[in-house]
Amino acid sequence: MEAQAVEREGGMNGLEKLVLREGGWSAEVYLYGGHVTSWKSSQGEELLFLSSKALFEPPKAIRGGIPICFPQFSNLGSQQGHGFARNRLWALDAHPQLDPPPNATAAFVDLILSPSPSPSHDDFKAYPHSFEYRLRVQLGPAGLLTLTSRVRNTNSDGKPFSFTFAYHTYFSVSDISEVRVEGLETLDYLDNLQDRSRFTEQGDAITFEGELDRIYLEAPRKIAILDHEKNRTFLVVKDGLPDAVVWNPWDKKAKAMSDFGDEEYKHMVCVEAAAIEDPVTLKPTEEWTGRLQLSLVPNTHVGGSLDVPNAL
């Protein structure tokens, strides 16, 4: 099902994408990975980071944008790193079951990912469960970008399953050394650079002077990313996702990634809405919903409340 303001187009390397338009804003979604690769303002400025070396070549995941990490976050466990949702071909959902968008002018598209029915498939071997994963990507007034994921357990054998999850969002920033992430101060976090040892955030904001890779626990619903050079703030609003990941690879790791430019770490930051520490567990017929909303406001409009409706 497609809204009137959605166009199907050919993308990189022949992969199909959908372009959403609303009020001069736009967003692009690839069927490969259910992957949002672009979110542009009404002035045509790209707000998501996409590496110049990103490979649009299955089965490699696309480097940048908003990859979906499901049914596993990170490289821990028996599944492939960050799960298989980001490197599988999704389909248009002919019978979407998510609620309609709250604003009639919003452009949206509904996608669905189903597991491989073959017991011999690598995905099924690593994750032998039946599920329905429905994704709605919606572009609303003032460029409000909303991703809504709904996962349902459709196992016929009566077995529950568990998963971890993240919207692995790459934001485009002017200079990482001038960026502050606010809303996570005083929280406990797991440091992925120290075998997930647990620490408590001491600063009044997160700033960047080197590689950083942390999972913040019981994070608030609203997080702000302040880009001082561009005098703008990204607001991240999350529902059903208790954790938040903050990541920048810095120079050494950037050079080690073949699909990432050596100096591109200076112009990106990942702030991810996630469910990691406590996996989501679903019994048969149960379902889970996780929602991410992204908006952009001038720094002067943020204040201390991080209230999206008032900021917009």
UniProtKB/TrEMBL annotation:
GO terms for molecular function: carbohydrate binding; glucose-6-phosphate 1-epimerase activity. The keyword Zinc does not apply. The keyword Transferase does not apply. It comes from the Eukaryota. InterPro entries: Aldose_1/G6P_1-epimerase, G6P_1-epimerase, Gal_mutarotase_sf_dom, GH-type_carb-bd. GO terms for biological process: carbohydrate metabolic process. Keywords: Isomerase. GO terms for cellular component: cytoplasm. It catalyses: alpha-D-glucose 6-phosphate = beta-D-glucose 6-phosphate. Its EC number is 5.1.3.15. The active site is at residues 168, 272. Pfam families: Aldose_epim. PANTHER family: APOSPORY-ASSOCIATED PROTEIN C-RELATED, GLUCOSE-6-PHOSPHATE 1-EPIMERASE. Belongs to the glucose-6-phosphate 1-epimerase family. This is glucose-6-phosphate 1-epimerase. It comes from Rhynchospora pubera. The lineage of its organism: Eukaryota, Viridiplantae, Streptophyta, Embryophyta, Tracheophyta.
